[in-house]
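We emphasize that the prediction below concerns an isolated chain of 464 residues; any contacts that depend on oligomerization or on bound cofactors are therefore not represented. The input was used exactly as deposited, without trimming of termini.
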Amino acid sequence: MIRVTLLSGLGHTLLVAAGLLVYVLGTRIGQQRRHPSAAMAWVLGMLTFPYLTLPLFLLFGARKFVRPARRVRVQALQLPDGGPPWATRLLAGMELAPAVRNVRVLLHADGAQSLQSLLATIASARQRLDVCTYIFANDDTGRQIAQALLERVRHGVSVRLLVDAMGGMGMPGGMLRSLKRQGVQVRRFMPLLHNPLHGRVNLRNHRKLAVADGQRLWSGGRNLASEYFIDRPGRPAWIDLSYEVHGPLAAQALAQFNTDWRVARGLALRKARRPHGTPGLHAPARGPLAQWVASGPDHADDTVHALLLAAAYHAQRRIVAVTPYFVPDQALLDAWCLACRRGVRVSLLLPARSNHRLADMARERALRDLSAAGAQVWLAPAMVHAKAVLIDDDLALVGSLNLDARSLFLNYEAMTAFYGAEELRWLSQWCAGLIAQARPYHARRPSWPRDITEGMVRALGFQL
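Result of the prediction step, given as a token string:
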């Protein structure tokens, strides 16, 4: 009996040692820079209950793919004429395609305009159409978009549809099979049951875009479901933000889609990696300047997080942010608090109550810290799903990334950096209109049970 106990204890110790070794090797070899709370959670899990933690780490633990060594020297790059140099140089150093001038940019004032633009983008495709979304709902709007895709197929257009497997769980399999039978090429991004060498269940594709012939781009924060576009009885459409671009930016988005499409097939990321810069339309000499800023496991850097940190230290006058969920890491929160203390006007707009109750609870500590530093925090009466950040009058980011740890560090996300005065003016007025309808946030000291609960929920921020 004593011998069995000793063997059991030895086996447990060996398993703990093996788990810690796997964690260290997986983290170091894969160059996985982790948030301290996430690292502590994995280590404690390996020590206390390795039987569950080790397989979970193998399934969910990686947040970056191994990438080739950097090949671009910033000093050798030709930076665009326009845009703040600190931003364009930083993005160039992270090996993102450079900012390009485009023929036209149209930002959508509401869901109806956005849906009309999306359907027009689809209808404009003559050779190829590529659509990526996190959610594709089987509702009136989803079926309308599905019919538009099939119409392009009937006209001989090559149509590819990429749907995230987790986000698309509510989409009936019959709907996808019907699209496939009628000629749409469909792939699910990282199905829940798949070869772990081809990706991780925890790494979801949250990008939203439609590209027609590599020349016309529709993108932003909207999923393909009714709540993002149209009012329904008793359920007004969510406040969201999307845009349409005609020009070389569409070629950058298409290169991103091609990479995601190949990864969804199970190809190793290093084989699908696009070269720096992308072929496409000849850039006009004048026109709106914009840059595709992708972020996620397919990039060696946390690109948007790095840009937001740099922006916090370069901003001179204002930072305006609109997001549905606000659970930032400590570095970004500290940077914004410091910006407040050196005189930058920081304004943050959130829904008073979002569609994720845990995210609303997890945000409270960060909101209290920001308010104490002097930031203006506003709560909108309706659900706000838009994602936008404005820095002075130099830079605006619009796209799919929420200001929470999951979007900043785990998800495949896509933002567009707009540098043009007209686009910045439009977005500034749009944000001001939302703030005018919102009420100010008043920080309240939490009770100790509430404080403990908030801390526990915030520790799960990567999963929100």
